[in-house]
Amino acid sequence: MDADQLTGPLTAAMSRRRLLRLAGAAAALAGAAQFLGPTPARAADTYDAMRSTWVGLLTGTGFDPAAAPFATALSALGNEARAQMTAMAPGASSLWPDLPIGTVSAHVTTSYVRLRSMALAYVQPGTGLTGSAALASAVSTGLDWLAAHAYTPSTTPYDNWWDWEIGAPQRLLDIGALMYARLAPEQIAAGCAAVDHFVPLSEFASYSGHSTGANRVDLCRVLALRGVIGRDGSRIDTARKGLSPVFPRVLTGDGLYADGSFIQHTCVPYAGTYGTVLLGGLGRMFVLLAGTPWAVTAPEARSFCSGVTAGWAPFVYNGLVMDGVSGRGISRGVQKNDPLRIQQDDHTRGHAVVSDILRLAASGMAPAAQSAAWKAMVKGWLRRDHYAPLLADRSMGIPELAAAQALLDDPSVTAAPEPVEHRLFAMDRAVHRRPGWAAQISMSSARTTFYETGNGENLRGWHSGSGMVSWWGDTYGNGQYADAFWPTVDPYLLPGTTVSTRPLADAAGGEWNRTRPTNTWAGGTTDGTYAALGQDVRGLQSTLTGRKSWFCLDDAIHCLGAGITCADGVSVRTTVDNRNLGPNNNQVFTVDGTVQPATLGWSRTFTGSRSMAVGGMGAWVFPEGATVHVQRVARTGSWSTVNTSSSATPLTRNYLSLWFDHGTDPAGAGYSYQLMPGATASAAAARAATPNVTVLANTAAVQAVDCPSLGLTMANFFAAGTAGPITVDAPCSVLVRERNGTMTVVVSDPTRDAATVRVTLARAGYASVSAADGVQVLTTSGQVVLLAETGERRAPAGPSPSAPPAPPPRHGPPPRSPPPPPRTSGTARTAPPTTATPPPWW
Prior knowledge:
Beta-galactosidase, Chain A, domain 5
């Protein structure tokens, strides 16, 4: 029987593998089965089996509820459910007094969130409310109230579409699965009718609007569960087919790109939030549909799974996911209406990614070798996370805790070490990783927005795309940005950024800001180990312009700035760094070998300084000497200052801030310094005395460095020109590495405008060249001249990025196409002549 024809009760045969898997899930749920109500007076079928699978995904399997960390988590769930049950007071306009229904759609979703927690506490063992008749009655009462007053087939949506089509129905359907045997047929019918009203089948007719990327996966989850709860096979089949557009790599718009970039909302790097939703949603859907007539078997789905290593893993560092790919999610703290819920930070988001990868590894969609590699990678992250271990994360569900505990206890899986690599992405993001530390650089351009704000979130993220350098690995560990950084940091002193201090209004650029700078030069080139990164920076609602570069080495990142010009009538700053010192303020700060005061409120301007270091954190070197402004200060803020739906409780954190003041209305200002994560004061002093980098050029036209110890010469050309041994005829980024008689050249065009770039290297003696596809070797006589096709030149897919964003409430114009990968121009060798295989494209 074809799955398309299955619209009623299903009795199709199932495979032995499916039956065994369901038997295992049933055994794991046996402890709670007595509280799920009487078995229906009919034979179990695939819908029942799928519902059982989903309940297993919600409750977890294979754990001891009396053991740590499960006993604590289950007790906390019970306490939360008890508090919500006590506070529930059905009235004329609300189910809970603090969640009035009628104007704020999020109150509908939050009401279902609370009922879902109550349903989980009823089903899960060890909550203190397991099987409570009073709790089951309260859940039923709550469902009836919402079905009559809030989420009905006749309700006209208001406020945010997401609550009506994703937020509320997902929680409603979870409750339906958990409490199915306790619900009357009329209650199930009412819920299904409401979902059908808000999520009609027409939503899946095209891959457009808000039905793309992570949103599309969420909508498919709603439709599939609606089919399971309502016993409607046609809806499950539509959901399965609706996933298909998500799998292929995209060239424009929302989704996963070939290089691992993940974009949502047209121009926002979003692997850490929307990308996590997509990854987690797909893993759950694969498990739900496996072994049924609607199993996902498309080769494209397996191909998508291979993108996990490229698209998500680079942004996870020891259990956290980097803020540079989390969009407006960085502003989500403790919610006003959910004081019992744990605040979101880079660790809670990262733990979700970790759990999603583990779930995907167990889904059977990836080859065994790939799943094994994921598990080793995840185990390494978990073992190295000492600041906020996943098993101590109270925001994690029991299923996620159980999967992590099982992995850590599995002797067959060896934890993978931190990789040594550099990853550069089309979405104007880069990640540099070394043993013990990692750094992530956030840029913006005509392709990616300055920042995103919307729903009252991320109100002061204005400069987070202006060259922000986030790094981890000091003794304060991975709490640098997790510990209330965003509500307390000075938003004009974000690490690595160059900004005008012109005051900006909250949400500057407008709600659902899609404002992008006009510059196209952002990105760089990498050989996979080292990198030259650059940005033609522009100011948000400012006249600021300038050129910034980051040259990523083994133990340091060398940072250059030039051509910094502004006419805003205010000072312009480049923030060397701004370290969150945590609550104790006990770090020793040293400048040129002299320990400085640890008094909060202390500040000083150092002239001609060569090195600075914070004990246990890292150091900064100024090889030419520099005037650096420093302050050690306690800053107080609240999550509500950056997110209107968050708590107004004051929070105070201590900061050590270092910056260059370029003065009011600078014309052509610049800077040069080196960031050394984890370095001591003595190591910084030694580096200042004997620099490992020579700056070949630092102008608005070109920024270039030479690092003889690594055989590296790297240059960012913002115009045709010469730097050291490199001459180019068009804007580009070039990396040259010479070692053991071999020279490797990598070139890319970050502007995405030039079809070809001619690179001339003043190097003689190379007898042979092995050129990559798309590279012509014009001569090796006396010098090496290469012509690299950097092109695949594409016109914008929509309106000019400098134009105002289009009016739809959640989406702006399509972005420019992503860049082609940097070209490996060739591997040249000295005599005797040999031919070498070039390294892969990056």
